[in-house]
């Protein structure tokens, strides 16, 4: 148990009959009249739904102990993604719904963080940016510069993103895993 005064970003709370909510942001408010309160933005751990919730200051909230383990993606087994705990070398199969959008950027040997609660994987957290090779994109045309538009490019994971017109097949680029945006070339 904790109080609303102890809230931190990333903390996981058990609310509404055991549902897990992650604190995205919080703000302590002390109005001129009346009692202080805490305004929060909470994200449902399983569905990803974001809600605003207000608590009175000092209200007791139940916290959930979520274990964040450093893991490495090993291989795909049928529909499941198999991750290896980098400290114990234990294999952990995770279903595609739990992996979610992280699957768009996963390569064998990719390091990521897996959040586990009561031995059940909750979600897979990728690094903010990953380096991937362009598997295919239309060839650039003379005169295409970085100020122009974008064109679709298929990454080595099979995911498609928009890249500047001057990018060619076989180049290694940096991609933002939160938004799927092109961040730049990687010099080898």
Structural overview:
This protein has 188 residues and is an all-beta fold. The protein has three domains: 11-56, SH3 type barrels (Roll); 67-125, Nucleic acid-binding proteins (OB fold (Dihydrolipoamide Acetyltransferase, E2P), Beta Barrel), CATH 2.40.50; 129-185, Nucleic acid-binding proteins (OB fold (Dihydrolipoamide Acetyltransferase, E2P)). The chain contains one helix and 16 strands. The protein has one helix spanning 96-99; strands at residues 2-3, 12-15, 19-29, 37-44, 50-56, 60-63, 67-77, 80-85, 91-94, 111-117, 120-125, 129-137, 150-155, 160-164, 172-176, 182-185. The strands form three sheets. It has a six-stranded antiparallel sheet, with no helix packed on it. The longest helix has 4 residues, at 96-99. The chain starts with a strand and ends with a strand. Residues 130-185 form the Elongation factor P C-terminal domain. It comes from Streptomyces zhaozhouensis. One of its GO terms (molecular function) is translation elongation factor activity. InterPro entries: Elong-fact-P_C, NA-bd_OB-fold, Rib_uL2_dom2, Transl_elong_fac_P/YeiP, Transl_elong_KOW-like, Transl_elong_P/YeiP_cen, Transl_elong_P/YeiP_CS, Transl_elongation_fac_P. Keywords: Cytoplasm, Elongation factor, Protein biosynthesis.
